[in-house]
Structure formats: structure tokens, C-alpha cells
Design goal:
This protein has about 25 residues and is an all-alpha fold. Helix content is about 25%, strand content about 0%. The relative contact order is 0.23. The mean pLDDT is about 70.
Length: about 25
């Protein structure tokens, strides 16, 4: 899992689920 991790600024997270969609595209 660590090899596919992203550096995400959680302070900018607006619960848009964009990160979940991006993960499903892998």
C-alpha cells in the first residue's frame, strides 16, 4: 500500500471523495 500512497494535504480536504475515485482508477 505504501508504494501507491499519495501525499495529500488533508487541510484542503472537502470530502469530495476525489481521492477515493483516484484510488479506484489504479
Amino acid at each position: 500500500m505504501a508504494d501507491k500512497s499519495f501525499f495529500i494535504d488533508t487541510t484542503k480536504c472537502t470530502a469530495c471523495r476525489g481521492c477515493q475515485i483516484a484510488c479506484k482508477q489504479w
